[in-house]
């Protein structure tokens, strides 16, 4: 084979590895009073005030304010709870991303929950810092009590774009509930690719965990395919706690691949929806 052609093929094979490595840095948790890097005179508090205009430091070292600006929920107008009447923050999560070939800053502000809502209110905000800082978009991504970036917070889906991954969760004495929004940034707007639900149990006779992993697979489209895999593992501990026998040790992978179809990501199967339905029967 011609050596130049061989080098070209090798470069094409290595390209996804290069952009995945370049986008590997995860989220940070800067103090709101600290300066935004390479943006003299701007603090993270200035950015946060685009979400909560009256946010200000108090004597206890927290930042407090009233209601955030109006925004949609990432799942649509029929989803999401109400924001709390007052918000208190000590810091926020910041994540550098690529969107449409441009550098963008995503920030996540978990504002807590209101008295009339079981789920929290968490703002995912998108900023352009190229000139004077601008708020480009903001959505509520909370679907449970506590919300954060799911480390590392992003998945490179091409040399010019990252998908964003957050998670919302709550726990009781023996169960953990996790909701994971997978989010695309397109035309400086957040778009939900899918919401993935997993469920963990730690009972007297066994432990069952569902670990979620993502992988980008270059397939010649503007955005790479995304493979989501849940590893569902059951490990008995040898105890017998009731009349029902403990389940046998087992492990299985449930995978779905999302492909870009010119207008949106489309999932290849309903396997993760079926898993969510199975989990709901165990609540």
Lateral strand order in the biggest sheet: 9-10-11-12-13-14-15-16
End-to-end Cα distance: 59 Å
Tell me how many strands there are.
16
- Specify the overall morphology: globular
**What portion of the residues fall into strands of 2 or more residues?**
over 45%
Structural class: mainly beta
The run of helices and strands is HHEEEEEEEEEEEEEEEEH
Largest sheet, strands/sense/barrel: 8 strands, antiparallel
- Average pLDDT for all residues: 89
Instruction: Determine the fraction of residues in helical runs and give it as a percent range.
Output: 10-25%
Architecture overview:
The chain is mainly beta. The protein has one domain. Helices cover 12% and strands 45% of the residues. The protein has three helices and 16 strands. The chain has helices at residues 3-22, 44-48, 271-280, and strands spanning 56-57, 63-65, 72-73, 87-89, 93-99, 102-110, 122-128, 134-140, 146-158, 161-171, 175-186, 189-202, 206-217, 225-236, 250-260, 265-267. Strands 9-10-11-12-13-14-15-16 form an eight-stranded antiparallel sheet. The protein is globular. The termini are far apart.
Short description:
This protein has 283 residues and is mainly beta.
Element layout with pairings:
Blueprint: H1 3-22, H2 44-48, E1 56-57, E2 63-65, E3 72-73, E4 87-89, E5 93-99, E6 102-110, E7 122-128, E8 134-140, E9 146-158, E10 161-171, E11 175-186, E12 189-202, E13 206-217, E14 225-236, E15 250-260, E16 265-267, H3 271-280
Parallel strand pairs: 3-8
Antiparallel strand pairs: 1-2, 2-4, 5-6, 6-7, 7-8, 9-10, 10-11, 11-12, 12-13, 13-14, 14-15, 15-16
């Amino acid at each position: 084979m011609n050596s130049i052609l061989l080098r070209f093929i090798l470069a094409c094979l290595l390209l996804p590895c290069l952009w995945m490595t370049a986008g590997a840095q995860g989220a940070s948790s800067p103090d709101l009073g600290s300066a935004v890097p390479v943006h003299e005179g701007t603090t993270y508090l200035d950015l946060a005030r685009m979400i909560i205009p009256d946010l200000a430091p108090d004597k206890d070292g927290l930042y407090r304010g009233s209601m955030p600006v109006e925004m949609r929920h990432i799942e649509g107008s029929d989803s999401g709870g109400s924001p709390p009447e007052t918000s208190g923050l000590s810091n926020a999560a910041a994540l550098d991303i690529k969107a449409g070939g441009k550098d963008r800053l995503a920030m996540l502000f978990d504002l807590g929950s209101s008295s009339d809502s079981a789920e929290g209110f968490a703002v995912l905000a998108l900023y352009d810092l190229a000139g004077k800082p601008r708020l480009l978009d903001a959505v509520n991504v909370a679907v449970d009590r506590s919300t954060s970036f799911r480390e590392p917070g992003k998945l490179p889906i091409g040399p010019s774009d990252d998908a964003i991954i957050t998670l919302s969760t709550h726990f009781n004495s023996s169960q953990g509930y996790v909701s994971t929004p997978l989010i695309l940034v397109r035309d400086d707007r957040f778009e939900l690719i899918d919401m993935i639900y997993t469920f963990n149990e730690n009972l007297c006779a066994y432990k069952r965990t569902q670990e979620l992993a993502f992988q980008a697979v270059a397939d010649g489209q503007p955005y790479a395919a995304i493979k989501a895999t849940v590893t569902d593992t059951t490990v008995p501990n040898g105890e017998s706690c009731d009349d029902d026998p403990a389940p046998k040790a087992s492990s299985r992978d449930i995978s779905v691949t999302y492909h870009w179809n010119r207008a949106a990501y489309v999932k290849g199967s309903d396997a993760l929806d079926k898993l969510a339905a199975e989990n709901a029967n165990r609540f």
